[in-house]
Specification:
The chain has helices spanning 64-83, 169-206; strands at residues 2-6, 18-19, 33-34, 38-39, 45-50, 87-97, 106-116, 120-130, 140-151, 164-165. With 207 residues, it is α+β, with helices and mostly antiparallel strands. It has one domain: Roll (Thiol Ester Dehydrase, Chain A), CATH 3.10.129.10. The strands form three sheets. A six-stranded antiparallel β-sheet has the order 1-5-7-8-9-6. It has a two-stranded antiparallel sheet with strand order 2-3. Strands 4-10 form a two-stranded parallel ribbon.
Length: 207
């Protein structure tokens, strides 16, 4: 059984695209449109799912891949809602399993956009479980994840996404942390590519 509850904010009808001042008009290149920003709450959702025996692994707990799919489903719904169209998973930047999930647990997968660039977004996901045999006790956090989504058009090409507008101190913190993760992600990729270039050059000299 799956239930999706909307966040507290309701997105307003999109305004006509604006044009960044000084963003174009050079050498015949058209200016880039700037979409109106959207508050974090406009796309926030909670997906709820009761875990069953079909979800278990050999140890009798819920398979990590099942939790990952729920995370991706919730994150994809948020990315699509924020970007107002299709969005595809570009990367799972981080996934941490903090507690085992058991049959009968009610999982609540909470997702929101933390940061947005020109065509991509980071979606943060927090997974909590209400234990079926611990009624009345606070839900436990069992997993967390950060995913990168890219908005695409009908031809599968990247398209612009609205800027995300943090509303609370926690939203602003999450946005800053997302920028740190992006910086580290890009630096890691460049370091790996540089190492491969050096290895290729060394192999060429050996030949």
């Amino acid at each position: 059984m799956i239930h999706v509850s909307e966040g507290s904010g309701t997105p307003e009808p999109p305004a006509p695209p604006q044009v960044a001042r000084g963003a174009g008009g050079t050498a015949g290149i058209p200016p880039l449109p700037v979409l109106p920003g959207k508050p974090t709450s406009a796309a926030r959702i909670t997906l709820s799912h009761i875990m069953s025996a079909h979800d278990t692994n050999l140890l009798g707990t819920v398979h990590g891949g099942v939790v990952m799919k729920l995370v991706d489903d919730a994150a994809g719904a948020v990315a699509g809602r924020h970007s107002e169209g299709p969005a595809v998973t570009g990367a799972m930047d981080e996934m941490a399993f903090l507690e085992p999930v058991r049959v009968g647990d009610l999982l609540q997968v909470k997702a929101q956009v933390n940061w947005s660039g020109r065509t991509s977004m980071e979606v943060g996901v927090r997974v909590v479980a209400e234990r079926w045999n611990e009624a009345g006790r606070p839900a436990k956090q069992v997993a967390s994840a950060y995913l990168v989504f890219v908005a695409v058009d009908a031809e599968g090409r990247p398209r612009l996404v609205p800027p995300v507008l943090p509303e609370t101190a926690d939203d602003r913190r999450r946005c800053q942390e997302a920028e740190i993760r992006r910086t580290h992600r890009l630096a890691r990729r460049e370091a790996i590519l540089e190492l491969r270039r050096e290895r290729a050059a060394a192999d060429a000299l050996d030949d």
